[in-house]
Amino acid sequence: MKDRYILTEFARVINSDRYQYTESDIFLMENMQDKEAVFDVFFRKTEDGGFAVVSGIQEVIHLIEILNNTSEEEKRKYFSAILEEEHLVDFLSKIKFTGNLYAMRDGEIVYPNEPIITIKAPLIEAKILETPILNIINMNMAIATKASMVTRAAEPVKVLSFGSRRAHGFDSAVEGNKAAVIGGCYGHSNLMTEYKYGIPAHGTMSHSYIQAFGVGAEAEKVAFTTFINNRRNREKNSLILLIDTYDTINIGIENAIKSFKECGIDNSYKGIYGIRLDSGDLAYQSKKCRKRLDEEGFTKAVITLTNSLDEKLIRSLKEQGACVDMYGVGDAIAVSKSYPCFGGVYKIVELDEKPLIKISGDVIKISNPGFKEVYRIYDSEGVAYADLITLVNGDKDKEKLLNYKELSIRDEKYEFKSSLLKQDNYTYKKLTRLYIEQGEIKQELYEELFDILNSQKYYLESLEKLSIERKRLENPHNYKVDLSSDLIKLKYDLIKEAKNI
Length: 501
Hints:
Layout: H1 18-29, E1 36-42, E2 52-53, H2 57-69, H3 72-82, H4 86-93, E3 100-103, E4 109-110, E5 117-122, H5 123-127, H6 130-154, E6 158-161, H7 170-182, E7 187-188, H8 191-197, H9 207-211, H10 217-231, E8 239-242, H11 248-262, E9 273-277, H12 282-295, E10 302-305, H13 311-319, E11 326-329, H14 331-334, E12 345-351, E13 354-355, E14 372-378, E15 384-391, H15 396-402, E16 407-410, E17 418-421, E18 427-430, E19 433-437, E20 440-441, H16 443-448, H17 452-464, H18 468-471, E21 480-483, H19 485-498
Helix pairs in contact: 2-6, 3-4, 6-7, 6-13, 7-8, 10-11, 11-12
């Protein structure tokens, strides 16, 4: 029994719901395992009604890498412990992913109902990946998207992700801080994120550090000077003093000033130095502290604000004229506190080249059928104008787009809501990329995903190409996400077929 506490990476593949294996057993018994399926990963809405930020594609590809590199013996050990169907255990022990994986890259801006990932593979290979993929994508994209909202609210002030201790477990802390950086955070505090992804961790001191030197003003000053003298020449550490342990205005800021002077820290210091406020009226205290620091000549001292911040509180602090050079944000980002369930789904859209659709009385749950890809269209000034979801094969609008021909795009539900793109008066970018082909990973594209700061750079550059009205956090201006004419026709033909209309 103790052996089950020691899990290899293959456990990530089986981090699944049982029904996927129950269905796979039926598919195997009915000789359906070789049918080629297409599944889409997408979401239906965001917290603010705007866009989301893609994160987790690297981890999804690694999941498939694990599946393909795990030995038959190890697979059998796991499957035989949880499945009673011997024929299914035999089949799964030999299984490898032999299909294709298409995805948007980490850092991409994406809208509801757009395929973020498309799996095209034999039915069981695609089916057993459903929960593991959603587990990765929903956590990563919830955090990256929330980080985007917080950092947009804070702009131009930088944000650090400080939420590891509130994250929902190991992967959530490590991958979550990575996702937060992709979503615009300047940095994070997690050592394992630094180790795994190479993004430097930030952090200086806690209240318990100061308390370890005793109670009161003198003890706090000793804590400050000791810290400065021990850390001033360390390349990775900034001299940020936490000043609210006892009394921010009457004790903390004065001790910080005395300690900086006593230790010879001033504007000539090559590293970062300053203070952090973690409680009380942050707007009021930050202004008082800025005034005192400037009076004493510490005009380059930075002020970091923390304490249960989110995009709304940050916006309020900005409106109040808070003096701040950096925000540290914890659980609001780490667990996407106000919108913790991202809601990504994994839906079959085609089987053996026959398009499939899910119909619901809840219109938002009606799926878009067929094997699809996504294009972003830019106007003549380079601003993102609309996204067009097309069929991969035989799509007339796609052919017009690829050749910069005159193209009319329209709202799926309201034909009168349409736009005419004039010939050669727009540009486009294909957002869908092929990362795995016939089970083989495209190494150049895969390795690009390991450069997290490059993914962040891509996100920030994409953000610059959105109009300011579409970046606002409340009631963002609607961004057009249209289906091609052929896709609309296919969708409504299938609805009529299903309902015998």
